[in-house]
Amino acid sequence: MAAMRQIQHLKLEQKLSPQQIQLMKLIQLPTQELEERLEQEIQENPALDEGADEDEKERDEDEWDNDLDNTEKDDNLDDVNWDEYLSDDEIPAYKTQANNYSPDDEQYSVPISVQENFIDRLHTQIGMQDLDDTEYQIAEYIIGSIGDDGLLEREVIDIVDDLAFNRNIFVEEKDVEEVLKVIQTLDPAGVGARDLRECLLLQLARFTQSEDARLAFQILDRYFDAFTKKHYSKLMEALNTDEAGLKAAQDVILKLNPKPGNTSGSGGRVAANVIPDFFITINDGELEMRLNARNAPELRISRDYREMLEHHKAAKDKATRSDKEAVTFIKQKIDSARWFIEAIQQRQQTLLLTMSAIMNYQEEYFLSGDERDLRPMILKDIADQVNLDISTISRVTSNKYVQTPYGTKLLKSFFSEAMLNSDGEEVSTKEIKKILEEAIGEEEKRKPLTDQELAELLKEKGYPIARRTVAKYKEQLSLPVARLRKEL
Question: What are the backbone angles phi and psi of residue 339, rounded to the nearest 5°?
Fold first, then answer.
């Protein structure tokens, strides 16, 4: 049996400090989440204040140093570098700015929604129906199972089980079906449907029964699968109609709303409001970039905490145990506040540095707004320019938006892989996708281009890509296959 022995190993291991980890998290936050993080930090750390302190008096550091030299040393209080915490030398430059917000920033505030959404309207309407107590409770549960698109998200049998287990209401499937029929008569038309087909049929049932509407109802009721797959020849034969009649019925169907819950833009949830993190403008043919002022808040060390340190410094000779504990607490809070202020400043610098590199790299695109001018760009290209790690660039560009003269864009959208064109030049895959999208938009809808025809078209334009690559790009662009693009 081998003897046990202890052996020492020496190795180098790189670990991120808690402060570095927190900085990486701050860098990753978009503007709106940063504001929430600032509010949280200010609430948790009383030594951190927001806003400039214009009335704060400057201190004579030499006077403080002389006082400290003539003061009897104390083991606990001597650990505090008073000048470090009381001097203004370490206060970030942006603390002295009078105002970091421009008058234009108001327009980017998140609006407060006061609209009644369609779920609220359903509750109001069901209260006016002639239902008994049990039926009303069933109706309330069904409404709670309707998604933001207006469609029922639960099977009837599941609702029966839920009512039994959660509400102690024992009913049959037919009872739920009867109440569901009542809900399906409410506004908006099509609400409470169990699938797209039923949703469209419920809307058609409220139409004036013209010949076109009757044909449209028949198509959805009996030939829905053939219609979605655009088997127009089979439909005309089955319905005993010509192309004009089928097109008129199709026009009726296309006017229906597949998501009735989104009527009037007031669904079950309030739509998120995109707040740009950067602004790029063109001035006299030159690009100018600035950071959203919300990313550069004015932060400072609390004046009350500075005054408490001054008080403890003045009374150092008479310090009690509780005084020493108070100094330790104040020091910890000021340390934390000072680090947070510096982290926010470092975040600003990193964001500006990265966005400036992206703007310069894609200068041609930002001047023209044409996606075909986008250069192939990966994270490493920017990381090499700004001398930062690729993971940092990824965090900076994650969930961040820039407002340009051509709309608000996601930073990640400027990154793409490269491929060689017929001239041996590197081009962005986004350029190819844009040309592919335009080719499909201009095609003859009665006879859409196949993937092979699209590949040949791109090859003629100098982009030799395979048919399977065309299919992959189409999928990424959410473009349907040729058969489903066909129109009458």
Answer: -65, -40
Domain that holds residue 29: 18-102+295-335
Residues 228 and 174: beta-carbon distance below 8 Å: no
3-state secondary structure of 258: coil
Mapped onto helix, strand or coil, the DSSP state of residue 263 is helix
What pairs with residue 282 in β-bridges?
Answer: 287
Report d(CA 411, CA 279) in Å as an integer.
12
Question: What are 181-217's pLDDT values in tens digits?
Answer: 999 998 888 899 999 899 998 988 887 678 888 888 8
Q: Is residue 366 part of a domain?
A: no
Tell me whether residue 369 is in a domain. Answer: no
Residues 167 and 219 in one domain: yes
| Same domain, yes or no: 314 and 261 | no
Give the end of a domain, one of 316, 335, 354. 335
Number of structural domains (the chain) is 3
* Residues 350 and 357 sit within 8 Å (Cβ to Cβ): no
pTM (predicted TM-score): 0.51
For 216, the enclosing helix (H) or strand (E) is: helix 211-222
Of 207, 205, 176, 181, nearest in space to 192 by CA: 181
C-alpha to C-alpha distances, 488 to 6, 149, 211, 320, 448, nearest whole angstrom: 83, 29, 19, 91, 11
How far apart, in whole angstroms, are the C-alpha atoms of residue 246 and residue 244? 5
Residues 30, 147, single domain; the answer is no
Could you report the per-residue pLDDT of 93-143, keeping only the tens digit for each?
444 343 444 444 444 444 444 455 778 888 888 888 888 989 999 999 899
